[in-house]
Specification:
It is a single chain. The protein has 83 residues and is of the alpha+beta class. The protein has a single domain, classed as Eukaryotic RPB6 RNA polymerase subunit (Alpha-Beta Complex). It contains two helices and four strands, in the order βαβαββ. The chain has a four-stranded mixed sheet. The longest helix has 11 residues. It is globular, with a radius of gyration of 15 Å. The termini are far apart. 11% of the residues are buried.
Length: 83
């Protein structure tokens, strides 16, 4: 049986940077946008990037995408388990 080579998806140029926010950052985010956690867009716990980060359901992920017009755009997602 052949051994599979490991591949870090974050080294690929099309995969944006993903960061797990800590409790203080989540609180600041909720205050800044005046929203509740359940109002954030969701990302599956089975998403490859979420798996690599070892994020758990309830974690909030900040995604930093490169943009030609804005430079860097920030997007936020809450990790949800498979229902």
């Amino acid at each position: 049986m052949e051994k599979k080579e490991s591949f870090n998806i974050f080294e690929h140029n099309l995969v944006p940077k993903h960061v797990i926010l800590n409790a203080e950052e989540i609180t600041n985010l909720m205050k800044k946008f005046n929203i509740a956690l359940n109002q954030l867009p969701r990302i599956s716990s089975k998403d490859p990037a979420v798996k690599v980060l070892d994020a758990k359901a309830g974690d909030v992920i900040k995604i930093l995408r490169k943009s030609e017009t804005a430079g860097i755009s920030e997007f936020y997602r809450i990790v949800v388990g498979e229902e």
